[in-house]
Amino acid sequence: MVKTVERDVELTCIRCPKGCALTVHVNPDNTATVTGNSCPKGEEYGRTEVLNPVRTVTSSVRIAGTKNGVVSVKTKGDIPKGKIFECMDALKGISVEAPVKIGDVIIENVADTGIDVVATANFE
Amino acid sequence: MKNVDILIIGGGPAGLAAGLSAKRNGVENVLILERDKCLGGILNQCIHNGFGLHTFKEELTGPEYADRYVTMVNTEAVPYMLNTMVCDISVADDGDKIVTAMNKENGMMKIKASAVILAMGCRERPRGALSIPGSRPAGIFSAGTAQYYVNMEGRMPGKKIVILGSGDIGLIMARRLKLEGAEVLCVAEIRPKSGGLKRHIVQCLEDFDIPLYLNTTVTCIHGKSRVEGVTLSQVDENMNHIKGTEKFVECDTLLLSCGLIPENELTTAAGASMDPKTGGPVVDSTLQCSIPGLFACGNVLHVHELVDHVSAEAERAGAFAANYVKGR
């Protein structure tokens, strides 16, 4: 079993604009107890932020054959914080053929995270 | 002259929700006027996530949030006109509103409306309103303009960036430009605390080690044809510069994120009473302005932090306007 130093971490929840002040108590067995949250999303955020921080990445990719057409994209789920720039590198130089619809997969399993990058806008 | 029961000015989040609500409340003859080439307003360039937790109970990006409403507007056949600019609202003797608008197809047109819902949104405070000394080189943008360049046109505003003002758009753009490979040197905020949401400070600045200097402002812009740097100075509690704290920061771009101002040229020209505190019109509990039959909602009324709140308010405005029309 992994042993961790027992400690309290003060955080601001970023799951929604409310920004709850969370206290995350890290237990010796590497689990965490979250207080100060006002919804289940906050509990989950507090725990993962301390044990394995993740983020949704949003960006845009070019539309092939257009002068400056771009379509916005996001990681369909959260990816580890340390993988953000690897994800951005994977998006660099990518161009997609129109039409693009919301939800279309742009990159599968980006940066080996198991998460796809999908379009968040339509482009005809 | 075209006749409608409810005319909505603006096809952003407020206008879309107001139009849908007006129709759902039994008024068929509504019309949304939008000056851009597509519906959705500013949401289209807000490609970051965090929208819709209240309205749709899930986290969406701006374009996705807009698409939900545009889809509803299309499914429920709420009429709208794009590329159409409204330039005047006047009140006829019988209380009807005469709205003057124009577009390429119809030229100048007058539309008679029983009620009008103002949903024009807001604009960013420009450099001219900030009194920053220095020259006038290229490379000074409002944060929203930079957001348009990057997210809608795939172009970068510069390479070495200083952001003045810690409004939400500035914070969002700090992260966006950093992700796209720019050097984001710092965010300077004249007040003792950020004007942006705490979640944006955390995930846009702290995640990327971008410093936020509080009680600090830009006191000079350097450069002739292009920005070459800015002077940052600390300010005291009265926002006066503290001599001796000046620091030169080399950069090629200055972004301004210094507040949003409700866009009320039409409202004031129509003669509605204005509230100096919000920058929007004075409204009663039914979101009706001092002119009967003129309603306001969204950022034109007062600047909202969340689009979800805009949609909720606009839904109420649509219902109140429908009641007004039915009661005439």
If you had to describe this structure to a student in words, what would you say it looks like?
The complex is a heterodimer of chains A (124) and B (328). The relative contact order of chain A is 0.15. Chain A has helices at 40-51, 84-91, and strands at 7-12, 21-26, 32-35, 54-55, 58-63, 70-75, 79-80, 95-96, 105-107, 117-119. In chain A, the strands form three sheets. In chain A, strands 8-5-6-10-9 form a five-stranded mixed sheet. A three-stranded antiparallel sheet of chain A has the order 1-2-3, covered by helices on one side. A two-stranded antiparallel sheet of chain A has the order 4-7. Chain A folds into two domains: 7-52, no CATH class; 58-119, Roll (CPE0013-like fold), CATH 3.10.530.10. Helices cover 16% and strands 32% of the residues of chain A. Chain A is an alpha+beta fold. The mean pLDDT of chain A is 92. Chain B has two domains: 2-123 and 260-327, FAD/NAD(P)-binding domain (3-Layer(bba) Sandwich), CATH 3.50.50; 126-256, FAD/NAD(P)-binding domain. The two termini of chain B are 20 Å apart. Chain B is elongated, with a radius of gyration of 21 Å. Chain B has helices at 13-24, 62-75, 143-153, 168-179, 198-205, 265-270, 307-327; strands at 2-9, 30-33, 49-51, 60-61, 80-81, 85-91, 97-103, 107-118, 122-124, 140-142, 160-164, 183-188, 212-213, 216-222, 229-234, 247-250, 253-256, 260-262, 294-296. The mean pLDDT of chain B is 96. In chain B, strand 14 (216-222) and strand 15 form a beta hairpin. In chain B, strands 1, 2, 5, 6, 7, 8 and 19 form a seven-stranded mixed sheet that branches. Chain B has a five-stranded parallel sheet with strand order 10-17-11-12-13. Chain B has 328 residues and is α/β, with parallel strands linked by helices. At the A-B interface, strand 5, strand 6 and helix 2 of A face strand 4, helix 2, helix 3 and helix 5 of B.
